[in-house]
Design brief:
The complex is a heterodimer.
Chain A (H helix, E strand, L loop, with lengths): L3 E6 L6 H10 L3 E6 L12 E4 L13 H4 L2 H11 L4 E4 L1 H9 L13 E3 L10 E9 L17 E8 L3 E3 L5 H7 L3 E6 L20 E5 L5 E4 L19 H8 L4 H4 L6 H14 L1
Parallel strand pairs in A: 1-2, 1-3, 3-4, 4-11
Antiparallel strand pairs in A: 5-8, 6-7, 6-9, 9-10, 10-11
Chain B lengths: L7 H11 L5 H11 L5 H10 L2 H4 L4 H7 L7 E3 L6 E8 L2 E11 L1 H6 L1 H17 L4 E11 L7 H22 L3 E8 L8 E11 L17 E7 L9 H4 L20 H20 L5 E4 L4 H13 L2 E5 L12 H6 L5 E7 H14 L2 H4 L4 E9 L3 E6 L2 E7 H6 L25 H9 L8 H4 L10 E3 L7 E4 L6 E7 L2 H6 L1 H17 L4 E10 L6 H20 L11 E7 L13 E10 L16 E5 L10 H5 L13 H16 L3 E6 L4 H11 L8 E6 L7 H6 L5 E5 L4 H10 L4 E8 L3 E6 L2 E7 H9 L1 H6 L1
Parallel strand pairs in B: 4-5, 9-12, 17-18, 22-25
Antiparallel strand pairs in B: 1-2, 2-3, 3-6, 4-6, 7-10, 7-11, 8-10, 9-11, 12-13, 14-15, 15-16, 16-19, 17-19, 20-23, 20-24, 21-23, 22-24, 25-26
Classes of the chains: A alpha/beta, B alpha+beta.
Chain lengths: ~280, ~775
């Protein structure tokens, strides 16, 4: 039986459909469920995704209003059961605002996703970047299919994606415990020294951070926009781009897995191995 | 009632008191049409319905005369909210493309952020209301010269417009699939913001903007959905139909306020409503509220079905109770739709919007309300507190008016084949590359989300057209938008024709076949006979080109299925924009996998030049870079040659022989080659070595910079024979002009003699940085 993932549709999210398609492509079942669905109907799912978008119009702060919705209470219970909960972009902002990530203190909010910084420009920024798998594969729900050090081209699109904290030493703790799952990097996996390799000025170049158990992950890049090879632009300094260029004329190859597909496949493996 | 009596001055005074822009003659006409004095609400209704924006009163006969609008793929042509054409079948489904194209110029000049945002907001509603999902938006932007006079105010506009576009489009979750940005002194006081929305639906899902015939046999309700009606945007259509006076603060209230969040929720909730009604086999009518608000939407919805309506304005959900009747009837409050459904289904519809999707909870005052009913009697009747505030025959409201405008050619421009002084080709190349209208627009499009929905194949900047795929199928849709005021300034007929040619060339450059065009025609005051002549010539050029460049594999014109005319792009200081046709082309790829970008792929490939080089530098980027814009002679227009080149390139790409392709437009042959070397995203690696055959009729500038159309295609040397066979079959002027090389350098020779050699990195820098420096 295929694991069944619930994609939560908060008012204002806008990546739910392609996220569901990406899950299905990776061998999972996916259902898009409205935020106000009865709590009891959610516990049958094997995992949850909070997709990208602008939940509640980014009122107060991105993710802040959704983080206070009743459904988050259900997700906190489900997270405690070890089920994977992955927030992508705005979903990451919701997880951070709810305290599920980094999930160290009991329900305390330790992290923030602040406005992009250090890029010499204002506002939203959408482009392809490279991220490096910074943790051991089995450390998080999204990395089971990778090796530590793997480099993926993947797109970002956000105005507030800078992981930061007012708490001294938090990032040391997160690094030490392996909770920094993905880091922005150069095309060969080197340290991102500044814009554009590091697109937003995140602490430790963090692109994805998990809770201590690794089953709840907040990631800013969009794996559903790099799930199929056709989505990869053809000029990046990456084997994925070269593969895309060589696939010209083959629909089957262009519809095969792109670099982000491994994220969803990892969620599947994580569920199957846990059970 | 408002008394329409006495002298012209008396009537003018009465109209002014009411606050409408109708001419005294028009007020008299209203009185004779309805046989009595009109009410205030009625005057507001006519003010909007008879505005240039809504009635096309100056342009309609010209459009009807010159533009081809029919074709075997066309399901719905101009006249409804959006045009609909068949794309093709895949996986047992028949897909259609739904496209709409509009201007939002005046609002964007006054309030750039809000104006540009509501531009997207308005155009996507036109596509949503046809039952389609919006899968892309494009913006064609025209700004003043940021280094010219009034530089400070000129620079504020692009920054605000770009922000409005990203704030709205990104939040709505509709990818930006291209557009263009042009900087020209002619737009210093009147920017242009033209917006395009592209939707996809299954053919059976299309909903008409009319009350269905079923309403003759059973009671139908009219349901208003969305934001509570307020005073915003009151008179927006009227404002767009007159000369912009920046001192008029009153215009500020005519710009609507945007809300992409609510729009997104309405789209999701509406999807659920339509799915539910379709399951029960219920026929509906659906229309967005744009210019003219409730009165316009309802009169068109019921009028198209041959019905009338009774509206109870007290049932309309409003932002504040003291709002006047005319404002409820005519305000252009954003994020609203009107739905006609059988009365027995109304309860279910309200429940989905108000309970399942909790509209009132997530947005203050938003909801769905029954505001009236469809009647057999073909009148539009509105009541408030039991009193009739408007009672008009629907036909009179909808028929509009028309004006015969005088048309008079401008005096022929002085000077002939003017050219810049012959100088160093290398420095000419670099100045062309860094010209604001030629250089990369990445600074702009990196603000836009072009990948949401996950359908992208070629993204803005990578190729001449963007390509998206329909998930799970081989079908691809290519989109491009074009229009170069420099050509139009010299010859509006050629400018119109070339806007069509270039947009079709762009589609062909990725291997797509054009299935439809839309146009937005931006001009000054049509009451000026010269301006009107420019307009007529432009439309004639568009029509001729659309007829001549029939789609590959057919002998049908490429149909123009939707569009918009925007007059009065003129400020009170008397400066009018140049004739500015903006044409969008939509193409289909049966198999998107053949699509190519502009970036050179490898060393050792052939570079084919397709299409004849011609003499004439008029309208070119070279002339603009030399400060000679508006002067010189345009290269001769040859529509048959254009068509043959387009068809040959389409065949080369479809048969899988092309590695990269770029059309020749701004910057001429040099501009095309340079961008192939640089790469659309600045990630090129291969260089090019080109040697052009000398031609006694052409100067080196003609060869390299004349904007006479054509293509450059990179093909593998092993397929040279097959490519030549295709080119011979289409009888196209073509030759191999050089090869790609591993060093990232471009070397240009004529007759074996090097005229310029430029490092890729130097071109890249010249091309990537100017826009950010100008407006960042």
């Amino acid at each position: 039986m295929r694991p069944h993932i619930c994609v939560i549709q908060f008012p204002g999210v806008n990546c739910e459909y392609e996220t569901a398609r990406a899950l299905e492509t990776a061998g999972l079942d996916a259902s898009i469920v409205r935020w106000n669905a009865p709590a009891g109907s959610l516990s049958d799912y094997d995992g949850f995704i909070l997709p990208g978008g602008f939940s509640y119009q980014d009122r107060v702060r991105a993710g802040a209003v959704a983080a206070g919705e009743d459904v988050m209470g259900v997700l906190i219970e489900q997270a405690a059961l070890g089920k994977p909960i992955v927030g992508i972009c705005n979903g990451a902002q919701v997880l951070v605002e709810s305290g599920l990530v980094p999930g160290i203190g009991a329900q305390s909010i330790d992290l923030a996703l602040a406005p992009n910084k250090g890029m010499g420009r204002d506002g939203y920024y959408a482009n392809w970047v490279f991220v490096r798998v910074a943790s051991e594969p089995r450390r998080s729900a999204i990395t089971y299919g990778f090796k530590k050090g793997d480099v993926l081209p993947i797109p970002i699109a956000h105005g507030e994606g800078r992981f930061t904290s007012s708490e001294a030493g938090l990032f040391d703790t997160l690094e030490k415990s392996g909770q920094v799952i993905l880091k922005y990097c150069t095309s060969d996996g080197g340290v991102a020294a500044g814009f554009p390799d590091d697109p937003n000025g995140s602490e430790r170049s963090a692109a994805a951070i998990s809770n201590p158990q690794g089953n709840v992950v907040a990631m800013m890049p969009h794996p559903e926009r790099s799930t199929w090879l056709r989505q990869v632009p053809d000029g990046l300094d990456s084997v994925w781009s070269r593969k895309r260029t060589e696939s010209r004329g083959s629909w089957d190859d262009l519809e095969s897995g792109g670099p982000g597909a491994g994220i969803f496949e990892s969620i599947k493996t994580h569920i199957e191995e846990r059970v | 009632m408002v008394r329409v009596d006495g002298t012209v001055a008396d009537i003018q005074r009465a109209l002014k008191e009411v606050g409408v822009d109708l001419a005294p003659d028009e007020a008299r006409r209203i009185k004779s049409l309805i046989g009595r004095d009109p009410s205030v609400t009625e005057l507001y209704i006519f003010d909007i319905m008879w505005s240039e924006h809504c009635s096309y009163k100056s342009s309609k006969p010209i459009l009807q005369k010159h533009l081809p609008t029919e074709g075997s793929r066309v399901l719905i042509g101009p006249g409804e909210d959006a045009g609909v054409v068949r794309l093709g079948a895949a996986e047992g489904k028949s897909y259609v493309l739904v496209v709409a194209h509009e201007s939002h110029n005046h609002p964007s000049q006054i309030l750039p952020v809000e104006g540009a945002a509501t531009g997207i907001g308005g155009i996507v509603r036109d596509v949503y209301c046809m039952g389609a999902d919006v899968v892309g938006v494009m913006d064609a932007l025209r700004f003043g010269d940021p280094d010219g006079p009034r530089a400070e105010s000129v620079r504020e506009v692009p920054a605000g417009v770009v922000r409005g576009i990203w704030e709205y489009g990104n939040a709505l979750g509709v990818p930006n699939v291209g557009g263009d940005v042009f900087f020209d002194r002619g737009y210093a006081e009147n920017c242009l913001v033209n917006v395009v929305a592209v939707g996809i639906a299954e053919e059976k899902e299309i909903i008409r903007s009319r009350v269905p015939q079923a309403a003759a046999g059973e009671a139908y309700d009219l349901i208003l959905i969305g934001k509570p009606t307020d005073m915003s945007g009151l008179g927006g259509a009227t404002m767009a139909s007159k000369i912009l006076d920046e001192s008029e603060e009153g215009n500020l209230g005519a710009v609507q306020l945007h809300d992409p969040f609510l729009k997104r929720m309405l789209a999701e909730a509406t999807k659920a409503v339509i799915a539910d009604l379709r399951k029960s086999g219920i026929d509906i009518g659906f229309k967005d509220l744009g210019a003219g608000g409730i009165s316009c939407a309802v009169s068109e919805l019921v009028g198209a079905g041959g019905f009338g309506a009774e509206l109870d304005l007290d049932s309309v959900h409003v932002a504040f109770d003291s709002i006047e009747s005319y404002a409820i009837a005519c305000s252009e409050t954003q994020e609203r739709y009107c739905l006609a459904v059988p009365s027995h289904a109304s309860g279910k519809v309200l429940k989905i919007y108000n309970d399942d999707f909790e509209l009132p909870h997530i947005y203050r005052g938003a909801c769905a309300s029954v505001i009236g009913r469809v009647t057999a009697k073909r009148d539009l009747v509105m009541t408030r507190a039991g009193e009739v505030v408007a009672d008009l025959p629907v036909e009179i409201v909808n028929q509009g008016i028309s004006y015969d405008r005088k048309s008079e050619p401008r005096p022929a421009p002085a000077g002939g084949d003017e050219r810049p002084d012959a100088g160093d080709i290398r420095s000419a190349c670099l100045s062309v590359l860094s010209l604001l209208s030629v250089c990369s627009k990445h600074y702009v499009y990196r603000h836009y989300d072009s990948e949401v929905k996950g359908m992208s194949v070629l993204k803005p900047g990578e190729a001449d057209a963007s390509v998206i795929s329909i998930p799970g199928t081989c079908l691809g849709v290519a989109t491009a938008v074009d229009g170069n005021p420099r050509y139009s300034r010299i010859d509006p007929y050629v400018g119109g024709a070339l806007a069509v040619c270039e947009s079709i060339r762009n589609i062909a450059s990725v291997g797509a076949v054009p299935v439809a065009l839309t146009d937005c025609l931006n001009f000054g005051n049509p009451e000026d006979p010269h301006v009107f002549h420019d307009f007529v010539e432009t439309v004639r050029g568009i029509g001729d080109a659309a007829r001549a460049l029939w789609g590959y594999g057919t002998e049908e014109p490429v149909p123009i299925v939707s569009g918009n005319v925007s007059f009065y792009n003129e400020s009170s200081s008397g400066s009018a924009i140049p004739p500015s046709p903006v044409v969008a082309c939509y193409g289909v790829l049966d198999d998107y996998s053949v699509a190519v970008s502009v970036r050179l792929k490898q060393a050792g490939s052939d570079l084919f030049l397709i299409g004849k080089r011609k003499s004439g530098l008029g309208g070119s980027a070279l002339m603009a870079a030399a400060g000679l814009d508006g002067r010189g002679r345009l290269p001769a227009l040859d529509l048959t040659g254009e068509r043959d080149a387009i068809h040959a390139v389409t065949e080369i790409i479809r048969s899988g022989h092309a590695l990269a392709c770029h059309d020749i437009s701004e910057g001429g042959l040099f501009g095309a080659l340079a961008e192939m070397v640089i790469g659309g995203w600045g990630m090129g690696e291969a260089g090019a070595e080109v040697d052009l055959r000398p031609d006694p009729g052409l100067t080196p500038e003609d060869m390299l910079f004349s904007e006479c159309g054509g293509f450059v295609v990179e093909t593998s040397r092993t397929s040279r024979g097959e490519v030549e066979e295709i080119l011979n079959r289409f009888a196209v002027a073509s030759e191999v002009i050089g090869k790609t090389v591993s060093d990232h350098v471009m070397t240009l020779k004529i007759g074996g003699e090097t005229v310029a050699g430029i490092e890729g990195s130097e071109m890249r820098e010249a091309w990537l940085s100017p826009v950010e420096k100008a407006i960042g």
